[in-house]
Specification:
binds fe (ii) ion, globular, alpha/beta, Metallo-beta-lactamase, Chain A, five-stranded mixed beta sheet, seven-stranded mixed beta sheet
Length: about 290
C-alpha cells in the first residue's frame, strides 16, 4: 500500500488508514501534515496547519467531498503557528456554533490568540477522549515538554493511528508520504550506498531520513528527560502507525520501535546537548545591520 501511495501526487489527499486522510502539501522549507478523520456526519481535523497553506488544505478536504460545516472538531496538539495559524480561517469557513477546538488546558490561553471568539475545550474536560459518530474513538495522551509544555499525542483507536505532532517529525521535507526505505536500508547494512551520496530529498534513503529525524529532536525537544518521558508514554500506546506533523508517516509499529530505540541511543537533546557539548556561541552578538 505504501509504495502505491508514495507515487501519488501531493496535489491529492492521501488515505493513510481507513477514513484517515493526509490533507497537507509538500513544502521544501518545512513540510506540515494536517490529517482529517472522517466520521459518519462529524469529522475531526488534526493540527490544521499554517495560514499561508489554508487554501490548499481546504481544497484537499473539498476534494474528499467533505463540506467544511461537517467538521465538528479541530484538535491542536500544541500551539505553534505551523499547525494553528489557520484556525481563524477554519473557524470562519466552518461557521458553526457546534465547532469545538480541543487541546490540553495549558495550550488554550495561547490558542485563544489565534481565534479569540472560538469555543475552546480542554482535553481534561472531556476525559481525554472523543467518541465519534462511527466506530472511531480518539484518545489523548500528555507528552509534556515534547516540545511544548502542554504537548499531547492523539490515538485513533480503530485504525491504531497515532498522531504525534512534532514528535517523530523531521526538518527536511520528503517527497515521500510514507517512510518506507528504513527497514530495507537497515536490513542490507548499517549504511546503505545512497546514505553517503548527495542525493536530493526525493531520494533520501531511510537511514538519512532517520538521521534527520534525530537531528530534529536534538534541536526542537527542550531536554533529554522530556524526550525519554515522551517515548515511555508512546511505547505504552497500542498504535500501528505514526502520523507526525512534519516529515514522513511511519507506516509500521516495527519501524517506529526501531526509531524509538535510535532516539534513546542518540545522546543529548535540547539544552543538555548545548551545555554538555559546549555549543553555546556568543560570537554573533552585536551584529550590525546596514
Ligand atoms: Fe512545534
Ligand atoms: Fe511543528
Amino acid at each position: 500500500m505504501a509504495n502505491i501511495l508514495n507515487s501519488q501526487p501531493h496535489s491529492d489527499p492521501v488515505e493513510i488508514a481507513p477514513d484517515i486522510w493526509w490533507v497537507g502539501e509538500f513544502d521544501t522549507k518545512l513540510q506540515c501534515n494536517p490529517y482529517l478523520i472522517i466520521g459518519s456526519h462529524f469529522h475531526v481535523l488534526i493540527d490544521s496547519g499554517s495560514r499561508p497553506q489554508f487554501p490548499r488544505i481546504l481544497m484537499k478536504i473539498l476534494k474528499l467531498g467533505i463540506a467544511p460545516q461537517t467538521i465538528g472538531a479541530l484538535v491542536y496538539q500544541h500551539y505553534d503557528p505551523d499547525l494553528c495559524g489557520n484556525i481563524v480561517d477554519f473557524v470562519d469557513i466552518i461557521n458553526s456554533q457546534n465547532l469545538k477546538i480541543i487541546s490540553d488546558q495549558i495550550n488554550l490561553p495561547f490558542i485563544s490568540h489565534y481565534a479569540p471568539h472560538a469555543d475552546l475545550l480542554s482535553t481534561q474536560s472531556i476525559n481525554h477522549s472523543i467518541v465519534m459518530d462511527c466506530d472511531k474513538k480518539i484518545q489523548f495522551y500528555n507528552t509534556p515538554h515534547s516540545h511544548s509544555a502542554g504537548a499531547i499525542v492523539t490515538l485513533e483507536e480503530s485504525t491504531k493511528t497515532l498522531f504525534s505532532s512534532d514528535l517523530f517529525g523531521s526538518h527536511k521535507s520528503s517527497a515521500k508520504t510514507f517512510l518506507t526505505a528504513y527497514s530495507d536500508c537497515r536490513k542490507v547494512s548499517n549504511s546503505c550506498p545512497q546514505h553517503s551520496s548527495n542525493s536530493s530529498t526525493e531520494t533520501l534513503c531511510g537511514q538519512r531520513e532517520i538521521d534527520d529525524l534525530i537531528e530534529f529532536h536534538r534541536v526542537q525537544i527542550p531536554c533529554t528527560k522530556a524526550l525519554m518521558f515522551a517515548l515511555d508514554v508512546v511505547e505504552k500506546i497500542p498504535f500501528e502507525r505514526i502520523a507526525p506533523q512534519h516529515g514522513s508517516i511511519i507506516p509500521t509499529r516495527q519501524i517506529a520501535d526501531s526509531i524509538i530505540q535510535d532516539l534513546r541511543n542518540s545522546g543529548d537533546f535540547g539544552i543538555d546537548r548545548i551545555l554538555n557539548h559546549h555549543l553555546h556561541d556568543d560570537s554573533t552578538r552585536g551584529m550590525r545591520f546596514s
